[in-house]
């Protein structure tokens, strides 16, 4: 069955929403591991801790091509674009967070962990998404 133009549009939107959900999940896991989840309102706490990553993922992602047209999708392109976008987004998001909080020392270990683990989350999500997309698109 041939893909309809509308389904291509939705696939790209699902990719972006999935990316954002993945980043929020990444922040949740980090907060859970470090015991910093807001007990009074865990969901709001995670969203407040995620907004810098989510905002910059979108702002940086479009110019860097993180959300290509469906016709350009290959596993390599989706993963490579995510890597490049994350390597720009994560340090900028951390810098933004620290500037807003008036914290002037960024722990190298925190930056390295954010880069590494965030990349793993995005890599797994995008690989799974691409595999499912291939199955659905070629029915």
Overview of this protein structure:
It is a single chain. This protein is mainly α and 139 residues long. It has one domain (5-137). The protein has four helices and no strands. It has helices spanning 5-34, 42-64, 75-100, 108-137. Helix 1 crosses helix 2 (42-64) and helix 1 runs antiparallel to helix 4 (108-137). The longest helix is centred in the N-terminal third of the chain and has 30 residues, at 5-34. The radius of gyration is 16 Å and the shape is globular. The mean pLDDT is 90.
Task: Quickly list its features.
139 residues, mainly alpha, 4 helices, 78% helix, 0% strand, globular
Sheet-strand content, in percent, reads under 5%
Proportion in helices: over 70%
Distance between the termini: 6 Å
State the domain count: 1
The biggest sheet amounts to: none
Using only C-alpha atoms, the radius of gyration works out to 16 Å
User: Which oligomerization state do the chains in this entry correspond to?
Assistant: single chain
Topology order in helix (H) and strand (E) letters? HHHH
pLDDT under 50 segments (min length 5)?
A: none
Report the count of strand segments: 0
The DSSP helix count reads 4
Q: Assign the structural class, choosing from mainly alpha, mainly beta, alpha/beta, alpha+beta, or little secondary structure.
A: mainly alpha
Mean pLDDT, as a whole number? 90
């Amino acid at each position: 069955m041939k893909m309809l133009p509308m389904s291509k549009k939705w696939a790209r939107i699902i990719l972006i929403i999935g990316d954002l959900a993945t980043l929020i999940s990444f922040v949740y896991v980090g907060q859970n591991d470090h015991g910093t989840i807001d007990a009074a309102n865990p969901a709001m706490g995670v969203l407040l801790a995620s907004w810098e990553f989510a905002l910059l993922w979108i702002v940086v992602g479009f110019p860097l091509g993180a959300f290509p047209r469906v016709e350009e999708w290959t596993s390599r392109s989706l993963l490579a674009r995510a890597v490049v976008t994350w390597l720009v987004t994560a340090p900028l998001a951390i810098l933004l967070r620290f500037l807003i909080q008036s914290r002037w020392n960024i722990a190298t270990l925190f930056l390295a962990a954010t880069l590494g683990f965030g990349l793993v989350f995005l890599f797994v999500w995008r690989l799974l998404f691409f595999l499912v997309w291939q199955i659905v698109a070629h029915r």
